[in-house]
Amino acid sequence: MMMDKRLIHMLKADKKYIAGNILLQWISLLANITFIFSVAAFLQMLYEGEFRTEVWLRLIITAVEAVAVRFFCARGSAKMSYLSSKNVRKTLRQNIYRKLLKLGMSYQEKVSSAETVQMAVEGVDQLETYFGAYLPQFFYSLLAPVTLFVTLAFVNVRSAVILLICVPLIPAAIAGVQTFAKKLLSKYWGQYTSLGDHFLENLQGLTTLKIYQADEARNQEMNQEAEKFRKITMKVLTMQLNSITIMDLVAYGGAALGILISVRQFQAGNVNLAGALAIILLAAEFFIPMRQLGSFFHIAMNGMAASDRIFKLLEIKEAEQKEVCDFPKKGCCISARHLYFTYDGEREILKDISFDIPEGSFTAVVGESGSGKSTIASILMGRNHVQQGTLKAGDCNYDRIREEELMKQITYVGHNSYLFRGTVRENLLMGNHQASQEEMWEVLDRMRLSGFLRAEQGLDTMLTENGSNFSGGQRQRLALARALLHNSPVYIFDEASSNIDAESEDDILQQIYSLARTKTVLMITHRLSNVKNADWIYVMQKGKIAEQGCHEQLLGQNGVYADLWETQQDLENYGRSVQQWKKEVV
Ligand SMILES: Nc1ncnc2c1ncn2[C@@H]1O[C@H](COP(=O)(O)OP(=O)(O)OP(=O)(O)O)[C@@H](O)[C@H]1O
Question: Whose CA is nearest to atom 18 of ligand 1?
Answer without folding.
Answer: 372
